[in-house]
Amino acid sequence: MKTASLPANRATRRYNAFGQYMKDLFGQAVYKVNVDAGFTCPNRDGTVSVGGCIYCNNDSFRPSACTSTASVRDQIEKGIPYLRHRYGAEKFIVYFQPFTNTYAPVGTLERLYREALEQPGVVGLAIGTRPDCVDEEKIALLEELAMDRFILVEYGLQSIHDRTLTFINRGHDYDCFKRALAMTAGRGIKVGAHLILGFPTETRDDMLAMADELSGLPLGFLKLHQLQVIRDTALADLYAAKPFATLGYEEYIALVADFLELLSPDIVLQRLFAAAPDDILVAPVWNKSRSEFLNDLDAYLERKEIHQGKKLKTKVFPPEVAEEAGL
Length: 327
Known about the structure:
By secondary structure, the protein is of the alpha/beta class. Helix content is 36%, strand content 16%.
């Protein structure tokens, strides 16, 4: 077993946090401007399935200003002044967030991405998508944009376990994610993944196994949060018909701490917690804000003397791949 420590310039936290990573990279805080470019998903429109992922209700995470009824330019021009006024922000990443943001012809994608990058103060893009919605032509476009901008592709994985991907109507398997990752890594594009902890198809050990697995991949960034049952979803219908156990607050803090201990310290954590609006959240109801959760997690990590990568197993992949993945 290899004991790892955090990168020296980010060792003030017990995990490698995205906010500090961006400050180190750009010399100041960088803020996200969320936009909705009007995409859908292949498991919604019938290409691979219908209905979408069983947990998905985009209103659980989308800001009110993020709406496809306005152009990308208009959404950015509305979002940036707000962030400037509230936070004194000067640098921005445009986050293509709802649904699958590479699910269109490459010409359409190029127009939307370049429109976003043209706005004053925008230093890059974060693009949420699915691993089955990229190809060589789309990755080549992102590679070109990444030559002089920060380009982060966030692949929705949700789980490495195929039984879970089937249960949630994801429409692809884990091998699909690994193929997309292999296509993207080593090309100057920052590469991230999104996981959800707490599916009823998985044990605690199943969830922790994902930390070790992902640590061996050319992955630079990770979003992690608890499963939430949201109104007007298929998961909410299943929960109403036959309630299943969801993670308790203290249980989730302990789970995240153990997950971080097994995770490569080079992977940047973009997110560790989700908080859907009270009016659509069914379970688990914690009544905790993001700042409360992060403070409680920090206290737990300190008390238990845990830091990211403390129990990392030795993983090796080519240095040039690690560098281009953002590691």
